[in-house]
């Protein structure tokens, strides 16, 4: 409850137009509560496929110079350590190495996903 109040306060302070939040496990009930508070939350279900999509889009944004990040040691360490493994099925799996986390990487990837979707939506609206 306290975290949701902090999220609402930050959204109100900065005029957030949309939130992309993981819906897996405990995410969905929290997202529902945030929506009840009037926040514009869009659920993101993390699967191997959706994770690959947002990570590859984030990597492309870095390669093309479309994104800049804060000089945050935790985020940079996670980005530098992030791995891709090819599975026997031919699919790829993106993850942090054992004993490390990917919370910052996933947060950044979901934020970029939301910002990119909003930008595409604005561009489409301008075309008409």
| Terminal Cα span | 42 Å
Structural class: alpha+beta
> Approximately how much beta-strand content do the residues carry?
5-15%
Largest sheet: 2 strands, parallel
Question: Uncertain spans, ≥5 residues at pLDDT below 50?
Answer: none
Percent of residues in helices:
55-70%
| Secondary-structure element pattern, one letter each | HEHEHHEEH
Count the beta strands.
4
Globally, the shape reads: globular
Strand order of the largest sheet: 1-2
What's the total helix number? 5
What is the CA-atom radius of gyration, in angstroms? 16 Å
Q: Average pLDDT, to the nearest integer?
A: 91
Characterize the structure shown.
This protein is α+β, with helices and mostly antiparallel strands and 128 residues long. The protein is built from five helices and four strands; from the N terminus they run αβαβααββα. The protein has helices at 2-14, 27-36, 48-63, 73-81, 103-127, and strands spanning 19-22, 41-44, 83-86, 92-95. Strands 1-2 form a two-stranded parallel ribbon. Strands 3-4 form a two-stranded antiparallel ribbon. Strand 3 (83-86) and strand 4 form a beta hairpin.
Give a short summary of the structure.
This protein has 128 residues and is α+β, with helices and mostly antiparallel strands.
Main features:
128 residues, alpha+beta, two-stranded parallel sheet, two-stranded antiparallel sheet, 5 helices, 4 strands, 57% helix, globular
